[in-house]
Amino acid sequence: MPIKVAITDDHLIAINGIRTMLADFPEIEVTATYTTGAALLEGLQKEQPDVLLLDILLPDQSGHELAPIITRLYPDVRIVVITSLDAPAIVKSMLHYGCKGYLLKGADQATLFKAVEAAYNNEQFIEPSLKDMLLQNALGNQKRASSVPLELTRREKEVLQLIVAGDTTQEIADKLFISPRTAETHRLTLLKKLDVKNTAGLVRMAITLGLVDG
């Protein structure tokens, strides 16, 4: 039986590229593709793949929101993140949510196959370059500093860090000892200051501008 793989990415060119790369392996069968989180969750109700290749930045729900839902409802589905985000905080949070693999877009065909195979065998696979970065981060050798003169308060920075780590409004409130309403107000303020429309946009902008620590 081939390994059943589903792909979720909001860019069709990315989906087609991944599908083409996997087509060379007869032991892998791409059974479904999705472009939104809603479509993914609906599709999983009908059929579950062995391995799910999941982008983090989707138009409706982020991978941070989807991963814990999927691992809870469908524990046999192995998630491999495939994204352009390489911040240590993002990698660690997705692994914390039960993802079995983490790849950067642009990974070569052999690496993609190894990640799918490892996940199918319930083994963890992290792209080698990311492993090195995580090690450097753990040793304190990598520092991230803001490259733009953006004025964020200390509390806003704390909230942003937790949002990037994938925490919900309630979890942020609990960790910072504030009310959920206050946490949501900070989130809305961050949306305005960073000029984005949703949580996925906040994550993207925070990483792009170096506003969060690893």
From TrEMBL:
<dbReference type="GO" id="GO:0000160">
    <property type="term" value="P:phosphorelay signal transduction system"/>
</dbReference>
<keyword id="KW-0597">Phosphoprotein</keyword>
<dbReference type="InterPro" id="IPR016032">
    <property type="entry name" value="Sig_transdc_resp-reg_C-effctor"/>
</dbReference>
<feature type="modified residue" description="4-aspartylphosphate">
    <location>
        <position position="55"/>
    </location>
</feature>
<dbReference type="Pfam" id="PF00196">
    <property type="entry name" value="GerE"/>
</dbReference>
<keyword id="KW-0804">Transcription</keyword>
<dbReference type="InterPro" id="IPR058245">
    <property type="entry name" value="NreC/VraR/RcsB-like_REC"/>
</dbReference>
<dbReference type="GO" id="GO:0006355">
    <property type="term" value="P:regulation of DNA-templated transcription"/>
</dbReference>
<feature type="domain" description="Response regulatory">
    <location>
        <begin position="4"/>
        <end position="120"/>
    </location>
</feature>
<protein>
    <submittedName>
        <fullName>DNA-binding response regulator</fullName>
    </submittedName>
</protein>
<dbReference type="GO" id="GO:0003677">
    <property type="term" value="F:DNA binding"/>
</dbReference>
<dbReference type="InterPro" id="IPR001789">
    <property type="entry name" value="Sig_transdc_resp-reg_receiver"/>
</dbReference>
<keyword id="KW-0805">Transcription regulation</keyword>
<feature type="domain" description="HTH luxR-type">
    <location>
        <begin position="145"/>
        <end position="210"/>
    </location>
</feature>
<dbReference type="InterPro" id="IPR000792">
    <property type="entry name" value="Tscrpt_reg_LuxR_C"/>
</dbReference>
<dbReference type="InterPro" id="IPR011006">
    <property type="entry name" value="CheY-like_superfamily"/>
</dbReference>
<dbReference type="Pfam" id="PF00072">
    <property type="entry name" value="Response_reg"/>
</dbReference>
<keyword id="KW-0238">DNA-binding</keyword>
